[in-house]
Amino acid sequence: MHKKINRKPPIGEGEGAVSIDRQKASKDTLLTAAGTGGVREMKEYVGMVGAQIAQVLLIIVSKYAIADGMSNYSFIFYSNALASLILLPLSLIFHRSANRPPLTFIVVCGFFTIGLLGFFAQVFGYSGISLSSATLATTLLNLIPGFTFILAILFRMEAVDLSLTTQAKFIGTVVSIAGAIIMTLYKGPTILSSLLKSEISQNLLVQPSNWVLGGIFLAIDCVFGSMYIIAQAFILKKYPAEMIVMFSYCFVCTILAALASFIVEADLGSFSLKPKIRLMYILYSGIFGSAFQVTVQSWCIKRRGPVFVAMFHPIGIVIATFIGVIFLGDGVYLGSLLGSVIVVIGFYSVMWGKAKEKSVVVNNGGSLKLQNEESPLLQDVVEEQIT
């Protein structure tokens, strides 16, 4: 008489081994995805810092271009026209007809909408710069994160709850704006003085008698700028070809600037490119201030959402401070240093909240899921099945 013995398979055999192999594969894929995602995110951070540098320099260039006799409309026309000529061939190269999204009536209306919002933002922005100073313009741009965060909540692009991530983003936004205000209102004693005395620095820091009106125009610019960022996020969701979107944006701004100049301006002498220094202004604003800056911002909006892009504006005043110290002969003051530290703290708080919104979960079935607490309006859930 034989006894039936139930023997469990040793470790490494049967379903247990398959389960262990799946878990190991999931962990390996998790580490690979995390490393790849980190590299991609670094590109976005570097890109946005570069875009902020380009924007600060654009503010300085536009101040001198308008002071040299160019009108707001002529400067907008030439800048966006050159950017359109640059982005047209690039959009055809990077977005070929085979993988190009379908062009619908809603998308075309979206192109016109972001072009109209961007045009109004530029008109009020350059008017404010001409009436006040480049320093005030750089400072007031820090209102954009607050406006964008509010609009993102209203359009359900950002989750509103009492979670730690939401609190970090909200507090970080307020702290960054507060730091920028401190840099503006509080000068303090000199910490580091520069031997370089620049006439450019004096022209940028001067506040004319109508700087209040200029500040109002710059605040309106921030409102239109925030609306432009939100509208761009909507369009990129429906038409994820950022270079075509940005070409359309620059082209619409070019047409609107030409029409506005013919209606508003009686003398078209501001369109003259003489003296030759005006050509240098246009080359920089078209290549770096328009084509490079708006394309990088659009790419980051598509990948990370509008709040991520808007939160880099407080970094602009820090960049402006360093540019002033190194190239314009400005000194380093206690207010600038203190405000810069506060801006960086607020910036990292928001970035920490944005990073915590994404969590990678390895489930028992062996699939790797990227979960995002943001609305699916901006980012879809990504799933990679491990077989």
From TrEMBL:
User: Which GO-annotated molecular functions does the record name?
Assistant: transmembrane transporter activity
Q: Which Pfam families match?
A: EamA (PF00892)
Occurrences of domain EamA (ranges)? 45-184, 215-350
Give the location in the cell: Membrane
- Key words, A-Z: Membrane, Transmembrane, Transmembrane helix
What is a single cellular component term in the Gene Ontology annotation?
A: membrane
Tell me how this protein sits in the membrane: Multi-pass membrane protein
Annotated TM spans: 45-67, 73-94, 103-124, 136-155, 167-186, 211-231, 243-264, 279-300, 307-327, 333-351
Q: Hey, which family's this protein in?
A: Belongs to the drug/metabolite transporter (DMT) superfamily. Plant drug/metabolite exporter (P-DME) (TC 2.A.7.4) family.
**What name does the UniProt record give this protein?**
WAT1-related protein
Organism field:
Lactuca virosa
